[in-house]
Specification:
Elements: H1 2-80, H2 87-118, E1 124-127, H3 128-137, H4 141-147, E2 150-152, E3 159-162, H5 164-180, E4 189-197, E5 201-207, H6 240-250, E6 255-260, E7 264-272, H7 276-285
Parallel strand pairs: 2-4
Antiparallel strand pairs: 1-3, 4-5, 5-7, 6-7
Helix pairs in contact: 1-2, 2-6, 3-5, 5-6
The structure holds adenosine-5'-triphosphate (ATP) and magnesium ion (MG).
Residues 109, 173, 177-178, 181, 208, 210-213, 221, 226-229, 236-242, 265 line the site of adenosine-5'-triphosphate (ATP).
Length: 295
């Protein structure tokens, strides 16, 4: 009798185990299906991303030429019609030329934004001190002279594995903004510092003593064509920081700002620091020109 009960118990346990095994099997099939769907979505996303990038590149690249023509011939026409138009007509003409010139600048800006991905170069060791020295003496030399600005690097900065011309562009945009958005009558002073964060990342800070930014605008300014001032007060198209964000993110870092109106701003970005050996291996693994951990 006892033996029979025991046998029943065991049969019950066997059936329960079978049920569990069946459930597990079902769960495995579900998980595999979900994985497949996710992979498919990823492929679709990548494709649409690429299409969007291609579209931005082609649109901006091909719109450039006709836009240049409108702007250049418009200016010629404006010259030759000088004195022949009444005041209203001249004003309308000036609005038209101004619009064309602005559109041309925006198309150029869009192209620069799209080139961050379409013309990316393989990562190399980039010495940030050297990059700043180059920017000081070449790209920002005129702005430094005009504003009477100075750039301090109190402690030596590290080298990062990155696309050299993009790091150049990133620092140039951030330092250039620091020089441009200075307070009236106060010469801009820029300080660039760095520190290690989260083990293998470096955080670079570009601090200025300029007009500052309200907290409500901390995110907005990294969007395309987003500006907080009129073109009459400060020139520019509003693409600089959007390009910076795109550059930093494709190098696997992040970017942000801390600021107070009237007290200056500190723009910061992070980037991974890896050894030269790792850099060589990641470049060898990726013949297309990006670094493996790039986005
Ligand atoms: N260092 C700064 N101090 C104060 N405001 C800033 C600073 N940097 C950026 N901003 C604000 O953020 C906006 C966006 O900056 P961004 O560099 O994208 O554009 P821009 O400098 O106006 O034009 P572009 O960079 O295309 O020449 C600026 O118009 C300005 O209002
Ligand atoms: Mg700018």
């Amino acid at each position: 009798m006892k033996l029979e009960e025991r046998a029943k118990e065991l049969e019950g346990a066997r059936l329960a185990t079978l049920n569990i095994a069946e459930d597990l099997d079902e769960a495995r099939i579900e998980a595999e299906k979900a994985k497949g769907e996710l992979e498919e979505t990823n492929i679709k996303l990548e494709r649409s991303n690429r299409e969007l990038q291609d579209f931005t590149y082609i649109a901006s690249h091909d719109l450039r030429e006709p836009m240049r023509k409108i702007s250049a011939f418009g200016q010629l026409l404006q010259e030759s019609l000088k004195g022949k138009l009444d005041e209203d007509e001249e004003e309308n003409f000036a609005f038209m030329i101004d619009g064309a010139t602005r559109m041309q600048q925006m198309i150029d800006a869009l192209l620069a934004y799209s080139r961050v991905t379409t013309q990316a170069k393989p990562a190399k060791r980039v010495d940030l001190n050297k990059a700043i020295e180059d920017i000081k003496s070449v790209e920002l030399a005129v702005l430094l002279e005009e504003t009477g600005g100075t750039i301090h690097v109190p402690e030596p900065l590290p080298a990062v594995p990155a696309d050299p011309s993009q790091v150049h562009q990133l620092l140039q945009n951030l330092i250039g903004n620091g020089l441009k958005f200075h307070r009236e009558g106060i010469a801009p002073e820029i300080t660039v510092r760095s520190r290690r964060v989260n083990g293998n990342m470096v955080q670079v800070e570009v601090e200025d003593n300029g007009i500052g930014i309200e907290e409500a605008n901390y995110e907005k300014i990294f969007g395309m064509f987003q500006r907080l001032h009129s073109r009459e007060d400060y020139g520019g198209t509003g693409i600089g920081l959007a390009v910076c964000k795109k550059i930093v993110e494709r190098h696997g870092g992040s970017i942000g700002v801390n600021s107070a109106p009237g007290k200056g701003s500190t723009f910061w970005f992070t980037m991974p620091t890896i050894t030269n050996d790792e850099l060589r291996i990641t470049n060898e693994n990726n013949k297309l020109g990006g670094v493996k951990n790039y986005k």
